Amino acid sequence: MSFRLSYRADPGNPWFSWQYVRDNSDTIAAALGEHASLTARAVVIAALVALPLAVAAYWFRPLTGPILALTGVLYTIPSLALFAFLAPYLGIGAVTVLSVVVLYALLVIVRNAVAGLNQVPPEVREAAQGMGYGRWGRLFRVELPLALPGILTGLRLATVSTVALVTVGVVVGRGGLGQLIFAGFQNNFYKAQIMTGTLLCVLLALVLDLVLAGVGRLLTPWLRRTTP
């Protein structure tokens, strides 16, 4: 996606300009939409990969260390280096960005999901087993519901960090709001453009975090505080 600007910085170069926002509303909306789409897709894909890994680590305890170690190693790789490594194979575009941010989100989701599953009381698991639930029945009917707070915490942390990391996708032409921020540096350090992209990143992360917090309250009604 190409972001072209119709406004030039004035000599004062303020940190924020409503005129810039008005003149480039379509560009800003396109960047915000792309950023939100990349974030949502990355978190969903990461969750689909991370949750089975967490269940495997929970069921087969010898795998816990290697799974956490592998996701931890991936998390320590510098993002620019990872983009440089994957781009020749995956090309320049959204696939490369999604691959990188998914790899970074795995550790947070896996670690919190494993912690949530391990916090299920042993007597609850034994009671479910006594009621005739098999391994899969216990997982879906008992253990995963009780582990939801930990899982949702991991999803919230992964979402917020993904919003920030997507901006680095500008190096392969798919950085969402990162395109605005980077273009601001190229446009004689145009502060209003840089600040607009930065503020929208913060607001997007805040909104998505609040949405997930609301979903968590709906899915875990037993955790709500009751008033006498």
Beta-strand residue percentage: under 5%
Mean pLDDT: 86
Could you give the count of β-strands? 0
Radius of gyration: 21 Å
Task: Give descriptors for this structure.
mainly alpha, 228 residues
Task: Give a description of the structure.
- The chain is mostly helical and 228 residues long.
- 75% of the residues lie in helices and 0% in strands.
- The chain contains nine helices and no strands.
- It has helices at residues 18-23, 25-59, 64-76, 79-90, 94-118, 122-130, 135-166, 177-186, 191-219.
- Helix 5 crosses helix 7 (135-166) and helix 8 (177-186) packs antiparallel against helix 9.
- It is elongated, with a radius of gyration of 21 Å.
- Residues 5-9 have low confidence and may be disordered.
Show the helix and strand layout.
Elements: H1 18-23, H2 25-59, H3 64-76, H4 79-90, H5 94-118, H6 122-130, H7 135-166, H8 177-186, H9 191-219
Helix pairs in contact: 2-5, 2-7, 2-8, 2-9, 3-5, 4-5, 5-7, 6-7, 7-9, 8-9
Question: Brief description of this entry?
Answer:
With 228 residues, the chain is mainly α. Helices cover 75% and strands 0% of the residues. The longest helix is centred in the N-terminal third of the chain and has 35 residues.
